Amino acid sequence: MYVPLLRPFFFMCCSFRYAQILIGFCWFLTAMAIYLSIWVAPSDFQQGENYRIIYVHVPAAWMSLLIYIAMAISSVLFLLTKHPLFQLFSKTAAKIGALFTLFTLVTGGFWGKPMWGTFWVWDARLTSVLILFFIYLGALRFQEFSADVASIFICIGLINIPIIKFSVNWWNTLHQPSSISQFGTSIHISMLIPIFLIFASFFFLTGILFILETRQIILSFYFKRKSQ
């Protein structure tokens, strides 16, 4: 399955061409989100100003799940095709996903301290997200030994995604239920817009990090072969 779109040379040319556009979108969305979340969105009547951490915590949590699903898809495609770019995609996604998951855990702790009186509780949602972080680290570790084993491990780890999503519904947890669902949202529009803007900013940031990391891996492989 060596189509032009999956050739490293094609990827290097396209990524160099469009990276600046992604960076511009990322800066614009971030600036808009910061302005709306700090100066436009009102304070929460229960949590006061402490709630504003949701503007980075919730989008980071969404990205940690989205990246894992994308990584799993890339792993399945690698198992089916053995195309090296799919392996690179999975390896890069594991690094970026681990960063977003760690950021989710840290910001969640700072949000939970004033609400629960502690940075950490062994809550079903928190514990399943912590497991996701370890799965990301495990995927990175397995990538050092075998891409096939790493891909299988990532596919098995998909079991944890619905557990994270529905843990607040399946068990009695301290973590609040999802405020946004297919049935609507309980968040006011003035608070909802900054969340989606930050999510879009994180999405473009992920694309930028993905491009930079993948380009670095391809270049290091190229110079290694050239020096031999």
From TrEMBL:
<keyword id="KW-1133">Transmembrane helix</keyword>
<feature type="transmembrane region" description="Helical">
    <location>
        <begin position="117"/>
        <end position="137"/>
    </location>
</feature>
<keyword id="KW-0201">Cytochrome c-type biogenesis</keyword>
<dbReference type="GO" id="GO:0005886">
    <property type="term" value="C:plasma membrane"/>
</dbReference>
<dbReference type="GO" id="GO:0020037">
    <property type="term" value="F:heme binding"/>
</dbReference>
<keyword id="KW-0472">Membrane</keyword>
<feature type="transmembrane region" description="Helical">
    <location>
        <begin position="21"/>
        <end position="40"/>
    </location>
</feature>
<dbReference type="InterPro" id="IPR002541">
    <property type="entry name" value="Cyt_c_assembly"/>
</dbReference>
<dbReference type="GO" id="GO:0031966">
    <property type="term" value="C:mitochondrial membrane"/>
</dbReference>
<dbReference type="InterPro" id="IPR045062">
    <property type="entry name" value="Cyt_c_biogenesis_CcsA/CcmC"/>
</dbReference>
<protein>
    <recommendedName>
        <fullName>Putative cytochrome c biosynthesis ccmC-like mitochondrial protein</fullName>
    </recommendedName>
</protein>
<feature type="transmembrane region" description="Helical">
    <location>
        <begin position="92"/>
        <end position="111"/>
    </location>
</feature>
<feature type="transmembrane region" description="Helical">
    <location>
        <begin position="60"/>
        <end position="80"/>
    </location>
</feature>
<feature type="domain" description="Cytochrome c assembly protein">
    <location>
        <begin position="3"/>
        <end position="175"/>
    </location>
</feature>
<comment type="similarity">
    <text>Belongs to the CcmC/CycZ/HelC family.</text>
</comment>
<keyword id="KW-0496">Mitochondrion</keyword>
<comment type="function">
    <text>May be involved in the export of heme to the mitochondrion for the biogenesis of c-type cytochromes.</text>
</comment>
<dbReference type="GO" id="GO:0017004">
    <property type="term" value="P:cytochrome complex assembly"/>
</dbReference>
<dbReference type="InterPro" id="IPR003557">
    <property type="entry name" value="Cyt_c_biogenesis_CcmC"/>
</dbReference>
<dbReference type="GO" id="GO:0015232">
    <property type="term" value="F:heme transmembrane transporter activity"/>
</dbReference>
<feature type="transmembrane region" description="Helical">
    <location>
        <begin position="149"/>
        <end position="171"/>
    </location>
</feature>
<dbReference type="Pfam" id="PF01578">
    <property type="entry name" value="Cytochrom_C_asm"/>
</dbReference>
<keyword id="KW-0812">Transmembrane</keyword>
<feature type="transmembrane region" description="Helical">
    <location>
        <begin position="191"/>
        <end position="212"/>
    </location>
</feature>
